[in-house]
What does this fold into?
Amino acid sequence: MSTSNLAQALQSAIGGQSKRKQLQLVTEEMYRRYAVLRENRPLAIGTGDVLAAALPHFDATVISRALSNHCARISYQKQLAKGGRRFNLNGKPEGEVDEGAKTHAQALVDAAQEKAKAAAAATKGASTAAKADVESASAADDAADQA
It folds into this structure.
């Protein structure tokens, strides 16, 4: 089987999967191939096009979604907020993180941390309220037993 026939067969097999499954496959392949993604280093501008060319057997929109999901991760945003160099898929420096990107990333990190604090406080408040309800019910049972 020639290389082009093999590529077509692979693309056809992947294309038959659900979009969710395709997204999972692309994500696994990206992280397997590229340490720069596993390390959450700031990516060079244009990485999506390079990734689409490197993974031609996957649909470009699915690759774009997988890369978007990666870049939305707080661990990635924290690295971006630090500034410094951007890196290509081979881990080589390619450009710098500009101030606008740093500021935007820091705002996303701050918002995520506030959301996490609020969720933790709500969970703690619900836990405290549930504990108070249990103690109140227990006290009522004790009072009923004594009567």
Q: What stands out?
A: The mean pLDDT is 86. The chain is about 75% helix and 5% strand. The helical segments are 3-15, 19-33, 35-38, 47-54, 60-72, 74-82, 99-146. The radius of gyration is 24 Å.
